[in-house]
Specification:
There is one protein chain. Helices cover 17% and strands 46% of the residues. The chain is built from one helix and six strands; from the N terminus they run αββββββ. It has one helix at residues 2-19, and strands spanning 22-34, 37-44, 47-54, 66-72, 83-89, 101-107. It has a six-stranded antiparallel β-barrel with strand order 1-2-3-6-5-4. The chain starts with a helix and ends with a strand. 16% of the residues are buried.
């Protein structure tokens, strides 16, 4: 009976977790690598922001300039100790396709 209760709680919490993810269309302006840190300058809703990731991490990629979907992960999710985001190609559906990379989202 305990296993059934745990499974029920997990399945009931999935819609809440999915609702915490905010999707935005962003534009990557440029990218640079400095001492093993990938720094991505982006525009979100007309405002400049920065994404960062550690080059040695598998989900850290160097994106080309262009448009991407950015999905903000719920608090305390992700590999970095900050606001984590996933990037997806604009042509892909963030709900079902593989992410391009994971980054730390920084306000400028």
């Amino acid at each position: 009976m305990n296993k059934a209760a745990v499974l029920l709680i997990i399945f009931l919490s999935l819609p809440v977790i999915a609702a915490d993810k905010e999707k935005s269309l962003i534009t990557v302006k440029d990218t640079q690598v400095n001492n093993g840190v990938v720094i991505v300058n982006v525009r979100v809703a007309g405002k400049a922001h920065e994404l960062q990731c550690n080059k040695e991490i598998a989900d850290c990629k160097v994106p080309e300039p262009g448009d991407y979907w950015m999905v903000r992960l719920p608090k305390n999710w992700g590999i970095y100790d900050c606001a984590n985001v996933d990037l997806y190609s604009q042509a892909l559906d963030p709900e079902s396709d593989k992410k391009f990379g994971e980054y730390c989202f920084l306000e400028k």
